[in-house]
Amino acid sequence: MAETTTVIRPYRETDHAAVYDVCVRTADAGGDARGKYHSDDLMPDLFAGPYVFLEPEFAFVLDDGQRAVGYVIGTPDTAAFARAYRERWIPRLAGRYPVPPDPPANAEEEMLALHHRPERLVWPGLEEYPAHLHIDLLPPFQGAGHGRALMETFYAAAAQAGAPGVHVTVTTANTRALGFYHRLGFRRLEVAPLEITGPGETTVTYLGRAL
Ligand SMILES: CC(C)(COP(=O)(O)OP(=O)(O)OC[C@H]1O[C@@H](n2cnc3c(N)ncnc32)[C@H](O)[C@@H]1OP(=O)(O)O)[C@@H](O)C(=O)NCCC(=O)NCCS
Known about the structure:
By secondary structure, the chain is α+β, with helices and mostly antiparallel strands. It has helices at residues 16-25, 42-47, 49-54, 78-92, 107-115, 146-160, 175-183; strands at 7-10, 60-63, 68-75, 131-137, 165-171, 187-188, 204-210. 33% of the residues lie in helices and 18% in strands. Strands 1-2-3-4-5-7-6 form a seven-stranded mixed beta sheet, with helices on both faces.
């Protein structure tokens, strides 16, 4: 546990590189994904960049006095976010990521398939849990209550925006995160699994919580 004074504050554009850094260092089922894909920006370009670009008012960072060492990012309205991802985020990346073959042949192509199908974010029953979020902390800042505090910050912002509930999708292998969400009152949702059928067979669990 890092012994520094930390604060939670709204995201600023100057946090962008730190947020990308936290994202890639926690993107392999909670562990370090650096070197796993052809670019270390791939995971942040899917799971961090679109949130801070499209929904900056729902982005909060944990600042240790030097930099952002953790964040919670998300949207109160997943269906609107999925549309904005297609209309404004995919064009912004200007062809950096090609459309992969169908079905994808490896882990990288699975991620590219997710990027090119933001409509996957919308599923039957979403109306009850229309908000969703991603939360990540650098390892020295995990296990000290910051995760709970960041979640509560997001709940307040999403509830203020009118969302009745929030959901998360967790890589099923990330047992630590599953334990964390259960502790915070999230319960498993029966959602048809993503039909991304590459060899990576990344399965995700959907969890929801009323706000
Ligand atoms: C998952 C993560 C966000 C949790 O944040 P954290 O700061 O470590 O968690 P906290 O210390 O705030 O824990 C909050 C509560 O959950 C409990 N908890 C945490 N992990 C738990 C686990 N695996 N099982 C059961 N309870 C757990 C804590 O004991 C604490 O309980 P309390 O507040 O009632 O005392 C953080 O560990 C992390 O960033 N991990 C790597 C990235 C990641 O996996 N992100 C999620 C991707 S879906």
